[in-house]
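User: Helix-turn-helix transcriptional regulator, Acetobacter suratthaniensis:
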Amino acid sequence: MVLATGSLASPARELTLEESLGAQIRQLRRRAELTGSDLATAAGISLGMLSKIENGQISPSLSTLQAVCRALNIPLSQLFATAEEQRDCSFVRAGQGVAIERRGTKAGHHYRLLGHLLNGPLVLEPYLITLHDDAQPYVSFRHHGIEMLYMLKGRVAYRHGEEVYEMGPGDTLMFDSQAPHGPEKFIEKPISYLSIIVYPRQSE
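Assistant: Predicted structure for Helix-turn-helix transcriptional regulator:
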């Protein structure tokens, strides 16, 4: 029996062996801080071949996989032993998110990244944003993706494009973040809110 969730996303399917191997090779390459060209050259295969392997589009020969594993400095047995489906997961304890420098930091906006995933077609950046006493209004943020704000504490007038929204605890604002946006007026301090940004992952 398949149980549905509250999401409208289509059900996930099982990965093929080729897709599992390809995803693992891509992850190992990124951990080794190698570009696709670096690994392809070291393994003696074309970049196009490596791209097809990483995307699970072909079933590579054992000799090709051995060459890739030698370039990654891992045994072939490890690749197959861990080829079972794996999914990213990020757990951050209270107060332990990574402090991030962003454009608004100089204006007194403090960003703490609450999680990070390495794989998948989308990048999701969840931030806890705190506006310090010396924070300055800043309404010129612009970037790719969709952003959602969830107010935790305080009150702020938040601008998106030509509209301004007064937000308090429990309020949510979701918008296309290519339009200029940001807090225009601080109504009640201290102020903190969640900012969740989603955008497509760039292929390497």
